[in-house]
C-alpha cells in the first residue's frame, strides 16, 4: 500500500514525467537482461532500418538523447554485468578499443586547442559508439543460432527499406515521413539531375543490405527448407535497395564482393553461385526485354545511364561531384600533413565549405565537417595512430573470415566488410551510425563464429 501511495503521488505530482522516465528505464533494463537478443534486434530496427538518427530524440538540457544510443547503452550494461561468454574479442577487440580511445583523446585535444567546439566534437564522434556492438555480440550471443538470427534481423531491416524504396517510386506521400534530417536520404529529379522519373532513396537499412548482400545469397544457395524461399525474397529486396540507392560505389563493391566470394568460397560454392547468377541475369534480361517491348523505358533509363558511367572514367571525371571531392581531399591532405600525429579531432573545421539544404528550398553555405574519403578522414579524426588502430581491427577480422578453416558464411561476411572498406574511399561510411552498427555486428559475428569452431 505504501508503494502504491508513493507511485500515485508521483504520477499526480509535478515530478510525474521524471518518475515515468525512471519506471521506463527500469523496465527497459529488465527487458535487456531477460531478452538481450530481442532488444538487440530492436536496436537494429531503430538505428538501421527506416528511421534516420534524429527520428527518436529527446532534449535533456543541451544534449540530444537518441533512443538507439539508450538501447545500445542498456545492452552494453548487460554485456558487462551478465555476459554469456567472457571475452573481449582478442586482438580485434584490443585494436577497436585503441581506436575509440585515440579518437576520444584527439577530440579532447581538438577542443582544448580551440579547433572544434565541444558539441561538434561530441556529435561527430558519437557514431563511433555503435562499433561497441562488436563486444555485445561476442559476450551476449555466443551460439550459432543467435548469431544467425541477428544477421537475419539485419538483413530484414535492409529488405524493408528496399520494399519501401520501390513503393516510394509510385507515391510521393511518404517522402516527408521518411526524409532524413536535412534532406539527405531521398532525392528527386528536382534536387539531383539524372534521376528521370525515379527517386534516389538511401535509408539507413541500406547499410545492412550492402554488407550482408553476398552472405544472403550464400545462405539462399546453401540453406534448406522454408528458410530458402525467405532468403531469396530478402535477397531480391536487398538488391532493389542497392539499385535504387543509385550508389555507383555500391554497384562496383558488389562486383568486387562477387570476385572475393568466387575466389575464396571453394569449388562447390563457386559452381552454385555461377548457376544462380546465370539464372538471375536471365531474369534481369527478360525483365529489360519486356520493358523495352512495352515501350515504357523511361523509368529504367536513369539506372542504365548511371551504370554506364562506371565503365566510362572520362565521363565520371567531368562530373562536378567528383571535382568537389578531389578539392576536399586535397585540402584534407594538407591539413593531415600539418597534424599527422593527433589529427584535428572529429568535427573540426579542416578548411572546406559546402552548400547545405536546410529545407523549404533554403541553402546555406556552411563548414564541411565530414570527408567522403573516410580513410583520410580517420587521419583527420585521430592522426596516424587512429588509422593504424582501425585498420588493425578490420585486418584481424578479415584474417579470421578468410583464414584456414573458414566457412562459406564467414567468407561472405568478410566480403561484405571488404566492400565497405572499398566504398569508404568515396563515401562517408566509417563514421555514420548505421554503417558503424552494421560493421560491428558483422565483425562480431565473424569473430564469434570462429571462436565457436575452435571450441567445437
UniProtKB/TrEMBL annotation:
Residues 235-391 form the O-antigen ligase-related domain. The chain crosses the membrane at residues 19-51, 63-82, 89-111, 123-141, 150-170, 205-222, 250-267, 274-292, 375-399, 411-431. Keywords: Membrane, Transmembrane, Transmembrane helix. The keyword Membrane applies. It is a multi-pass membrane protein. It is found in: Membrane. Its main location: membrane. InterPro entries: O-antigen_ligase-rel_domated, WaaL-like. This is O-antigen ligase-related domain-containing protein. One of its GO terms (cellular component) is membrane. PANTHER family: LIPOPOLYSACCHARIDE BIOSYNTHESIS PROTEIN PA4999-RELATED (PTHR37422:SF13), TEICHURONIC ACID BIOSYNTHESIS PROTEIN TUAE (PTHR37422).
Amino acid at each position: 500500500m505504501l508503494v502504491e501511495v508513493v507511485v500515485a503521488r508521483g504520477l499526480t505530482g509535478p515530478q510525474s514525467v521524471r518518475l515515468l522516465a525512471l519506471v521506463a528505464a527500469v523496465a527497459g533494463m529488465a527487458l535487456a537482461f531477460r531478452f538481450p537478443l530481442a532488444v538487440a534486434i530492436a536496436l537494429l530496427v531503430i538505428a538501421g532500418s527506416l528511421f534516420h538518427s534524429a527520428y527518436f530524440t529527446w532534449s535533456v538540457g543541451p544534449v540530444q538523447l537518441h533512443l538507439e544510443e539508450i538501447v545500445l547503452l542498456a545492452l552494453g550494461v548487460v554485456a558487462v554485468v551478465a555476459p554469456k561468454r567472457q571475452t573481449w574479442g582478442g586482438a580485434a577487440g584490443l585494436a577497436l578499443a585503441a581506436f575509440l580511445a585515440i579518437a576520444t583523446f584527439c577530440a579532447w585535444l581538438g577542443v582544448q586547442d580551440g579547433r572544434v567546439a565541444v558539441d561538434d566534437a561530441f556529435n561527430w564522434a558519437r557514431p563511433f559508439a555503435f562499433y561497441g556492438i562488436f563486444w555485445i555480440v561476442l559476450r551476449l550471443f555466443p551460439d550459432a543460432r543467435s548469431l544467425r538470427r541477428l544477421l537475419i534481423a539485419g538483413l530484414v531491416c535492409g529488405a524493408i527499406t528496399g520494399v519501401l524504396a520501390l513503393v516510394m517510386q509510385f507515391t510521393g506521400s511518404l517522402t516527408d515521413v521518411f526524409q532524413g534530417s536535412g534532406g539527405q536520404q531521398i532525392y528527386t529529379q528536382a534536387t539531383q539531375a539524372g534521376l528521370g522519373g525515379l527517386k534516389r532513396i538511401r535509408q539507413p537499412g541500406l547499410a545492412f543490405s550492402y554488407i550482408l548482400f553476398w552472405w544472403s545469397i550464400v545462405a539462399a544457395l546453401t540453406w534448406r527448407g522454408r528458410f530458402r524461399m525467405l532468403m531469396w525474397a530478402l535477397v531480391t529486396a536487398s538488391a532493389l535497395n542497392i539499385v535504387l540507392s543509385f550508389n555507383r560505389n555500391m554497384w562496383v563493391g558488389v562486383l568486387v564482393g562477387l570476385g572475393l566470394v568466387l575466389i575464396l568460397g571453394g569449388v562447390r560454392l563457386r559452381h552454385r553461385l555461377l548457376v544462380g547468377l546465370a539464372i538471375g541475369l536471365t531474369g534481369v534480361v527478360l525483365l529489360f526485354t519486356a520493358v523495352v517491348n512495352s515501350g515504357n523505358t523511361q523509368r529504367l533509363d536513369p539506372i542504365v545511364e548511371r551504370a554506364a558511367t562506371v565503365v566510362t572514367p572520362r565521363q565520371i571525371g567531368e562530373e562536378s561531384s567528383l571535382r568537389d571531392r578531389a578539392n576536399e581531399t586535397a585540402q584534407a591532405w594538407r591539413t593531415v600533413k600539418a597534424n599527422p600525429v593527433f589529427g584535428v579531432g572529429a568535427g573540426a573545421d579542416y578548411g572546406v565549405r559546402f552548400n547545405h539544404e536546410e529545407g523549404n528550398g533554403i541553402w546555406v553555405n556552411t563548414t564541411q565537417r565530414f570527408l567522403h574519403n573516410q580513410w583520410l578522414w580517420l587521419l583527420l579524426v585521430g592522426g596516424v595512430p587512429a588509422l593504424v588502430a582501425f585498420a588493425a581491427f578490420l585486418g584481424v577480422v578479415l584474417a579470421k573470415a578468410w583464414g584456414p578453416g573458414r566457412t562459406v558464411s564467414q567468407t561472405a561476411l568478410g566480403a561484405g566488410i571488404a566492400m565497405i572498406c572499398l566504398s569508404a574511399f568515396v563515401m562517408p561510411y566509417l563514421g555514420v551510425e548505421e554503417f558503424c552498427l552494421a560493421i560491428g555486428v558483422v565483425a562480431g559475428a565473424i569473430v564469434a563464429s570462429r571462436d565457436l569452431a575452435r571450441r567445437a
